[in-house]
Structure formats: structure tokens, C-alpha cells
Amino acid sequence: MKRALAAILVLAALAAPLSGCASIFDQEYLTIEDYAESTASPQQPEGTVAVQNYLELKLAINKLVTAHEERGSLDFSGYDGENIRDDLASACNDVRSETALAAYAVDYISYDLDRLVSYYEAEVFIYYLHTAEELDAIVSTGTVSGLNDAISAALDEMSTGLVVMVNASGAGEAEVADYVTEAYFADPLSCVNRPVADVTMYTGGGLQRIYEISLDYGASSPTLSSRKDILEGDLEELAARVTAKGSAYRALQAATVIMESCRSDAEAGNTFWDAVHLGKANSEGMALAFKALCDKVGVECLVVSGRLDRAEHYWNIITVDGASYHVDVSAAAELGLAGTFLISDSDMWGHYWWDNERYPQCDGSLSYSALTEEPSEPEPETSPDAVSPSPSPSEEPDAENSQSP
Fold it and tell me: How many angstroms separate the CA atoms of 79 and 248, rounded?
């Protein structure tokens, strides 16, 4: 019995290697060698950015913000800093506060820092206040001049807001709001109504600024568009009445046309629409109407914001033949054009006040009286030998009042 059981066990042992796919020649080996530490960098997952110092760390996070990435992996295997955790916290805070774009776009930045055997890897998470499409719509310019151009374009399109990034600017929020008013005064037909601007500025440690500008025109876009179309036709009719050749004479005709078309009323509206279409406006509305007409007939003209006898007041400065002069069409209704057209700075001081550093100096030699003076007829030339005609009876000298030689 024992022999039979042994035979069965031997046959089972011989049959086991023949089952499945194993070969009877397969053998296992165990090799023991000394460990040599690898000097090569570990395999990085796709998209992981290696950073070697603090500057590269900040640049990597800032690049994620610029691309509007919501997460990114950072590899610290070659990092030379002493405290990666502190550096990562500081870098996230610096990026959030030192660049205008991050200050505008980023709500907050978080991270997970993990140790992988002999090095650290971090996963950075960025939470945004604005969408990628909103960031793509930011107008980028190098100077404040480009900011003014962007504002003018927005007013012409009657946009309700815009965001502009200026690479180098020292302008504050109030100053940018003034730029909106200046753009409107430069083109009264652009958006019909004077916009109210709400400006929020975002900045970092340098001169880069982002200005978020909200614009309120006080009327709906369809209403403004309809009025703009009507005003363009009104302006064409007014310009047809300005037919003089010289710039000074065209400016005088333009002032006369505005005075004939609009009644000066301090309690009336303050727009080009009020002055031209409704027929009465305050000093601002009349100054805007005169500006628009001068632009149409080719006379260089500005709207001036200032004061008259301590009250807010608006008038114009025109430039003809290289010299500048004040023109106040709203005051002309009461004072006449002789005292309000082609006026110098020196004649304005006392009753008027304005920031003379913002406007051209007005010291030209032309005057209203010189423009309107009737030319005298030349006397007929007579030859020396011609005999003087005898006086008529009415020209005979009075005998009682005559003096004897």
C-alpha cells in the first residue's frame, strides 16, 4: 500500500509542470547586487514643470495664470531652496498680489505638496474671478494714449464697459474717469449722452495697471442709436448754413447758427441733443453743439470746463491760423458776440476760471470787430494837374463862420 501511494505522488509531481503554458525548462533566479543611487532626474508626468529656484517657481505659477489654467504640477527635484513649503506659500501670495492680471483675474490660489521618495511635487489650484473669454477681451496697450483710444472706441460703440491693461501708467481711478469725460467732449456725437464712469484699478508692484471701466449713458442703447442717427442729419443741415471760406469766418458763422438754433437756458439739458434737436440747452449743451458743428465744417475746437462768476460753466477754444481764442456761445445771447467771440486769456480772467495748463494759450491778434468791420472803399486816384471841382452851393463855406487869411 505504501508503495502504491508513493507511486501516485511521483506521477502527480511529474504531471504538474506540464499543465498551463509553463515550460519544464523554466527556472527562477535570485540575484543580489549593491544599490547604486541614480543621478538622473525622475520621470516627470506630462505637463509637469520643473522649478529650480524661487524665481522659476513664481514664473511657473504666473504662466498658469496667464494661460487661465486651473491647475498645474510643479517638480521640485532640482530645487535649491531650503524650505519648499514656505517658498510655495510665498510664491502663490506674490503672484496674486504683484501682477495686475492676477489681481484682476484670480480669486485665490491653493496647493498640495507631496513628498515622492527623495523629492517634492506640488499640485497648484487656481480659482478665477473671470472667465477665459473675459480675459481674452482685455484691451492691452503700452501707454495712456492707447487707453484714451480704447475709451473713445468704446464710447463710439456705446459699450457699457471695457477692461484695459496698460503696461506703464500712473493714472488713478479718478483720472481715468476724467479721460471718459474728455473723450465724450472730443466727440459729442459719439454716444449722445454724457456717460457716468465707474473705474476700478488693479495693480501689482510695478507700473502695469488694469482699469475696469463701467459706463452708464442714462438711456437704452436703441434710444441712443436712434438719437445719434437723427443728430447726424441735424448736423448736416446746420453745416450747410456755414458757407464762409476762411476758418475764422466759418467759426463766426457756426457760432451764429448755434445761437439761432438754440436758446441758452441754464435750467435746460446739457447735451448736443438738447441744444440742436430740442432747441434749448445750458452752457454745456451749447458748447458741445458748437464743438460738433466746428468739427463738421473743419474748424479746430475744444470744449472747456470751468467756472463763470463761481458757477460751473462750459465754453470753447478754437484755433484759427495757428492762434487760439475763447468763444462762449451761451453767454453771447446776453452779452453779444463782440464780448464772447475771439477772446484772449487776459480778457477772460476776472470772471472766468479754467485750468489753463490743460488748454492752449489764447493770445491771438484777431478780434470780432476786425472780422465784422466793413472794408472802406479806396479813394479815386487824381493826377496832380487835375483841377479840383468847384464846390456845390451846399458845400460853399459859411461866410459868418469862415476865417479870413
Answer: 73
User: Around 268, how many Cα atoms within 13 Å sit in the side-chain half-sphere?
Assistant: 21
Beta strand pairing status for 280-281 and 263-264?
A: parallel
- Give the count of beta carbons closer than 10 Å to the beta carbon of residue 288: 27
Q: Sign of dihedral through CA atoms 193, 196, 200, 201?
A: positive
pLDDT in tens, 93-151: 999 888 899 999 999 999 999 987 778 899 999 999 999 999 999 999 999 999 999 99
Q: Which helix (H) or strand (E) holds 96?
A: helix 84-98
Please state, rounded to an integer, the average pLDDT across all residues of the chain. 84
Give the three cell numbers for residue 167: 503696461
Helices 173-186 and 144-156 pack at an angle, to 10 degrees, of 50
What residue type is assigned to position 272 of the chain?
F
Q: What percent of the chain has pLDDT over 70?
A: 80
Query: Hey, CA dihedral for 233, 236, 240, 242, is it positive or negative?
Result: positive
What confidence score (pLDDT) does residue 334 get? 87
Q: What's the whole-number mean pLDDT along residues 298-303?
A: 97
Query: How far apart (Å, rounded) are the C-alpha atoms in residues 328 and 341?
Result: 7
Burial label, 181 (beta-carbon count in 10 A; 0-12, 13-18, 19+): middle
Q: How far is residue 56 from each of residues 51, 59, 75, 96, measured CA to CA in Å?
A: 5, 5, 11, 16
Cα separation, 249 vs 244, whole angstroms: 6
CA angle 68, 152, 160 (to 5 degrees): 60
The C-alpha cell of 214 is what? 463701467
